[in-house]
Amino acid sequence: MIRHLSFLFIKVIILTLTVTNARGQTPFGSVYSIFGVGEIQPQSSIQSSGMGFASIAINSPYWANTVNPAANTNLGGIYTHIFDFGVYYAQINYDKQSTSETLSGGGISHLSYWYRFSNKWTGIIGISPYSKVGYNITSNKIAVEEGNTYSVNYKGTGGLNKIYFGQGYEVIKNLTLGVTVNYIMGNLRHEEHVTGLSNGTTFEVVNQTSLHKLDLDFSANYKINIKDSQLSIGAIYNDKRELSGTTTQKLTEPDVEAFYDESEKASTYILPEKYGAGISFLNKKLMISGEIEFNRWSEAIIENSESNLNDTWRFAGGIELTPDREGPYLSRVNYRIGYFTENSYLTIEDTKFGNQGITLGLGIPFKSNGAMNIAYLWQSNGTTSNNLILETTHKITLAFSIRNVWFVKSKYQ
After folding, report:
1. Cα dihedral sign for 18, 23, 27, 29?
2. Number of domains in the chain
3. CA distances from 285 to 230, 331, 335, 336, 363 (A)
4. Is the pLDDT of residue 360 over 80?
5. Inside any domain, residue 412
6. Nearest to residue 319, comparing CAs of 304, 337, 331?
7. Exposure string (b/e) for 273-287, b if CB count within 10 Å is 16 or more?
8. Fewest Cβ atoms closer than 10 Å to its Cβ: which of 23, 116, 170, 385?
């Protein structure tokens, strides 16, 4: 019964939805996170977040690559450990033809810890959001049967987080291979609050799914030294991921104990196979990086999608400029800019859309061992065609990097 109601409402939601700013704890995120495991979050370091999220081929001597652990052999210098922590605040404007709404929110963006075992072997461990569910949508005047009409308020919260443990080892000169152990876990909560406009009937449908998966990612990086510069080529590969878990479904009426409450094995969620490749150029002043990423969504499976999914292509590029790393303070600041674009894996009411964005960033060094990094994102996602919603995001991320030397014996002459 619950599944029948859910699919009926979702089928008509896209043509009738209106973003609602509810009081209290308002779910915050993309309206399109109603599908699957939610809105997939960009995977990158705070520095790459200012360079269009380009990460795959960046082998920087100054900050850790969280996407490709094989691209960390340049990192560290005299430092053996780098700790990075960040928070974000975002504002999203939702446009639907003649109406609009703005919501805002924030949270922790990432936590990572890089370390060096030897000149050839490095590792990184961390946690970051993998997907986010956050929507609050009202659909009015849904006709169901016998002339009855209903107002339905859809709310979604939760998402998946990724705990990762990556290793990179230089197998031959300038060629490093990497492997990352990922544990993906989280809860997806979808609520439907239904009110009968003609008969006053009210009831609530709650669907909460707990998912998890342990798997491996693979990566590689090859460096080509050219005088005082370096060319770096990177690649990543993720196989398909089939998530496991349980789903609890409840159907309740006001002041009445739940008359439907059942737990069962979660529906099949298969996340796509992913390929990525990139190239970067680096010297003391300039870093330029570009990449391409392919996700085979056509072979993935997600809940609440009745149409075929689209394979996606993401293109990203960015630049970091540091005028003089050994000069006056302002000349040691890192200035970053980037761009990305990607088509959506969803087709809604025969309408395809995508997202694109511009990023800016600053790396502000501390007098001691560390830096403060700031990244700004402007992103456009969706479309107003066919009565859909266009989302415009402004996001600020603030992070702190702390470098140190541990477990190294002092040398005396």
Report:
1. positive
2. 1
3. 12, 10, 10, 12, 13
4. yes
5. no
6. 337
7. bbebbbbbbbeeeeb
8. 23
